[in-house]
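User: I'll paste a sequence; please echo it back and then give the predicted structure.

Assistant: Echoing your sequence first, then the prediction.
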Amino acid sequence: MSDAGRAGVANPAAHGFSEILYAFSSASGNNGSAFAGLSANTPFYNTALGIVMFFARYWIIIPVLALAGSMAAKREGPRRRRDAGNAHAASSYSSS
């Protein structure tokens, strides 16, 4: 723990640790709230929580872009004519 990190904690015992843990897990879960005992509006916590938000929210972009690139690089296979015989048969039934 750095001095800047400990400076925002009102209760230095186990509850202080849970305040910090909740702030970071909340920031990564798109909530961004914190316990009342943590002074999270400091340069240290603003920067640290911002970095956590960035990585937690955007980590999924890399595999999704890789999947999209993989699908875009695939060649299009031959098209199948499904039910070609049935389509002709259906038209002959409708004319009668």
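The chain has a mean pLDDT of 77. The helical segments are 3-7, 14-28, 43-58, 61-73, 84-95.
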